[in-house]
Amino acid sequence: MFRNQMPRYEVLSDDAMAVLDRGWRRILTEIGVEFVSERALDLFRKAGQDVDGQTVRLDPDFVLEQVAKAPREFDVQARNQANDVHIGGDHMAFGAVYGPPFVRQGEVRRDATLDDFRNFSRLAQSFPELDSAGGVICEPNDAPLDSRHLDMTYALQTLTDKIYMGNVVSGPNARDTIAMSEILFGGREAIERTPATLSLINCNSPLRWDDRMLDAQFEYSAANQAVVLTPFLLMGAMSPVTIPATLVQQIAEALSGIALSQLIRPGAPVVFGSFLSNIDMQSGAPCFGTPESAIGLFCTGQIARRFGLPFRTGGGLTSSQMPDAQAAYEAMMTLLPTFLAGANWVMHSAGWLEGGLVACYEKFVIDIELLRMLQVEFTPLEIDEASLAFDAHAEVGRGGHFLGAAHTLERFRTCFYRPLLSSSANYERWMRTGARDAAARAAEISQRTLAEYEPPPLDDAIRAELEEYVVKRRAELGD
Amino acid sequence: MFRNQMPRYEVLSDDAMAVLDRGWRRILTEIGVEFVSERALDLFRKAGQDVDGQTVRLDPDFVLEQVAKAPREFDVQARNQANDVHIGGDHMAFGAVYGPPFVRQGEVRRDATLDDFRNFSRLAQSFPELDSAGGVICEPNDAPLDSRHLDMTYALQTLTDKIYMGNVVSGPNARDTIAMSEILFGGREAIERTPATLSLINCNSPLRWDDRMLDAQFEYSAANQAVVLTPFLLMGAMSPVTIPATLVQQIAEALSGIALSQLIRPGAPVVFGSFLSNIDMQSGAPCFGTPESAIGLFCTGQIARRFGLPFRTGGGLTSSQMPDAQAAYEAMMTLLPTFLAGANWVMHSAGWLEGGLVACYEKFVIDIELLRMLQVEFTPLEIDEASLAFDAHAEVGRGGHFLGAAHTLERFRTCFYRPLLSSSANYERWMRTGARDAAARAAEISQRTLAEYEPPPLDDAIRAELEEYVVKRRAELGD
C-alpha cells in the first residue's frame, strides 16, 4: 500500500495550537456533548463525567486519558492478505465514494441501483490505487430497504478482496456486518485479533451523537472493529463561519466520540475523522474543493498527529454536476492537500460528484488518475551521485538532445509517470482519434475495466455460508 | 499584490542539496556552456573564464560571485503605480499565457490574431488576480511579421496599465521595447531607476544560449531591465530522464545566464527561471501537469532561495486539447505546487492550453478561478481567542445550527471564498439554468468581461507619441 514519506505541510504555529487547545477544552467543559444513548450516558456517568439529561460535560484531561488508550496505528485485514491495510503513520489508504443516492453515467443521471453498487465494487477491485471499495458506494435503491445492508456487504465481500466498511444504519445492521465478517474471516476471534472492518460514525454536528450511529459504534468497538469518528462540518450550518471555531468543534466532537469507544473497549481502534467544508451563504448549498476546506485539511492533519491518532479526511470532493473542469480542479484541490496533510484513511477517493449526491462512472476514472499521479508525486526523490547522470551530460554536451542517450535508452520505459486517462496527443492525432474530452475517455476506460473485471477467487463453502446468512436474515427482516 | 505568507513546502535534504551542488559545479567546469555571441564570449574571456570556441567553461565560484551582485528582490513599475510589482521575497506576481500561435474559443481552434492578442490583454487587465498580461499572450499571425512586436507592445501599454514583458526575438526588437517604455514612463532614466519591463530569455537547452535571445538580453540588462533566465527543460529531450540530473542542468544554465547579465551590468535585475516538465517517451510529445513537473517545482523553489534569487516557474499548464477535466486537474497540479513553492514570477497563469500551443478563452477564466482560490488558500489563518467564536457555540449549543447565529449574521457576506466560475447550484436549479458545464460558463464570463472592459486612462500626448513610434519603426522595418 502507499506510504507517504514526503514532508507534511503544516501551517499551525505553537501559539495557534495552544489557542485551539484551550478552545476544545472549553467546549467540552462548558457546552458539553449530547449522546442520544442511555448506554453511552451510563458509561460516562460511571467514569465520573457530568451527565445532565443527554448532555455530557467532559473533563478534557479525562478525555485525553481515554484517547491515550487508542492505538496510534493498527491493521485492517482483507480476505486477500496482499490487500491488508495499515491505518496510521505514513500509510495512506484510499476508499471509493460513500453514500450517493444517485448515479451519473454520461448524460444520464438516475437513481442508483444494486447493479451500480456491484459495478463500482468491481471498479474499486480493479484499480490498485484503491485499498477499498468503501462502504455505501452508492445507495442500492432497488434493493429492499431493511435488508439492503446485507446485499451491500455481500457484494463488497465477494466482488472485492479488499477491506470494506461496515454498515452503520443501526446496531442490528452492524451486528449483521460483524456476523458476515466472522463467516468470511473464520470466526469472531479472527476479526477481534485484527479488525476486518472500518466503519464511519458521523456526528450530528454540532456536538450531538445520535442513537442509531451510537448503537452501531457500540457493536463495532465492542468487537474491536475500527470506527472513524467524524464530525460532519459544513461551516455556516453545522459549525461557525470561522475555521478556528470549526477546528475546535471538530476536536471536541471527534475526541468525545473516541473517548466513548475507549470506554466501550479500551484499546479499540479508532480514527480521528474530519469532513470539513462550508456552505454557500447565499443559497445554503454545500461547497466542496474550496480554499477553506483545503486549509481545514492542512490543520486537521497537524491536529490529529498532535493527539497521536490516525486521521481520516479528504477525497476527490466537488460540488460540480458534471465530470467537467470544475469537478477536476475541486477534486485536485482536495486530493493534493490530502497528500500534503498525510491523511491515513481517505474516503470518497473515487467517483464523488455533485456534493456527494452522485456516484459517477467517469469521475471515478478521473479520480483514479489523480490518485495515480499523486502517489508518484509523493514518493521521495532519490538524489545521489548516480542520479545526476553526469555521463549523459558528457555524452550529449551542449545544444544536442537526450532522446538517444544511453542513459535515456536504459530508462525510457519507466522513467516517467504513464497516465491512465490524460492525453498528450497532438491536435492532429487527437482529432483523428475522435476528439474526445477527458470525460469521454474516462467513460471508455470505466466500460473497458468492467468488461475485463475478474472476480477474486472465494471458497465455495464460505460463499454459500454468506448467501445462507443473507437469505435467512432477509427473511427475518421481512423483506 | 499577493504575498504568500504561508510556509514553503521543501523536499530537499541538506545532503540532497550538497549532491546537487557538486553536480552543477561539475557541469559548468567540465562540460561548459555555449554562448552564441561574440560579445558574451568577450565578457567571459575578460573575466578570466576558459573560452574555447563558443564554449565557456566556468569557474563555479566566479559564477557565484556574479550571482551575488544580482538584487535579491526588485520592483517592476507599471504605468499605474497601484499595479507596480515587487519580484522576490514572499511576493508572487502572475502573468497570462505566453507564446501560443493558436487560439481556442468554444469548439473553434484557429490561428491567433492581433484581435485575440488585444482581447486577452483586456481580459488580463480586467482580472485583479493577474499582475500582467505577460508578453506574447498569443502570436498575432495577421500582423506583419517584422513589426508585430510593436503592435504587441503598444497593445500591452495602452490596453493595460499593468507591467508587461519585453520582446526577445532580437536585439533590435528589445531596443524597440525599451524605446517605447521610455516614451510611456518618461525617459531612459525613469526606467533605469526602476525597471519597466521583465523579459523572458530562454536557454536552448542543453547548455546553449542562442544569439538572438542573447542580443535581447544584452539590451535589457544594459538598460537595467529585468530578465528571466530560463532553462527550457522537457526531460527526455532537453535534459536527462532523471529529475536530479535535470535540476543540476537547470542550475548550471540559469546561473550561467545570470552571470552574463551581471557582467553586462552589475546589479542588473534577474530571475532564476524554470520551465521543467517531461516528454512522453512513447510519442515524444511534451506532457504538462505531471507528477515530475510538480516535484521539479518544489525543488526549484528551494534551490532558488538557496542562491538568494527570485524565481519563475509554474502556471496553469496542461497538455489537454480542451478546457476539460484534464486541463483543470493538470493546471491545478501545477498551480497549487506553484504556491507551495512560493514562485515569485508565474508566467502562463491564465489561458494556457494544448501544451502551450493554444491560448484559450475558457481556460483563461478557469485559471483565474484557480488563482483566486489559491490566493485565499495561501493567506494565513488568524487564530486567536476571538476567532474561536465561543459565543456562537454558547448560542447554538448541541444539535442546532449556525445559520441564524449572531456570529454568522455579522460575517455571512465575506466569511467564505465566493467563486467566479464554480457552481454549487443543486441539480434542479442547475438544470433550470441551462445545465451548462464549467467551460460553457467560463465562455460566458469571458464574453461578459470583454463587453464590460474599460480601457485604463492614458495621456493623449503619450499615446500619440507611441503611435508615432510604431508608424515610424514599421516603415523602417519595411512592413
From TrEMBL, chains A, B:
Query: Which GO molecular-function terms appear in the entry?
Result: methyltransferase activity
Q: Where are the transmembrane segments?
A: none
Classification via Gene3D superfamilies: Trimethylamine methyltransferase-like (3.20.20.480)
Q: Does the keyword Membrane apply?
A: no
Keywords, sorted A to Z: Methyltransferase, Transferase
Question: Which residues belong to the signal peptide in this entry?
Answer: none
Q: Which InterPro entries match?
A: MttB-like_sf, MTTB_MeTrfase
State one Pfam family annotation: MTTB
Q: What class of enzyme is it?
A: transferase
**EC number, UniProt record:** 2.1.1.-
One of its GO biological process terms is: methylation
Which superkingdom is the protein from? Bacteria
Return the similarity comment.
Belongs to the trimethylamine methyltransferase family.
From the Swiss-Prot or TrEMBL record, give the protein name: Methyltransferase
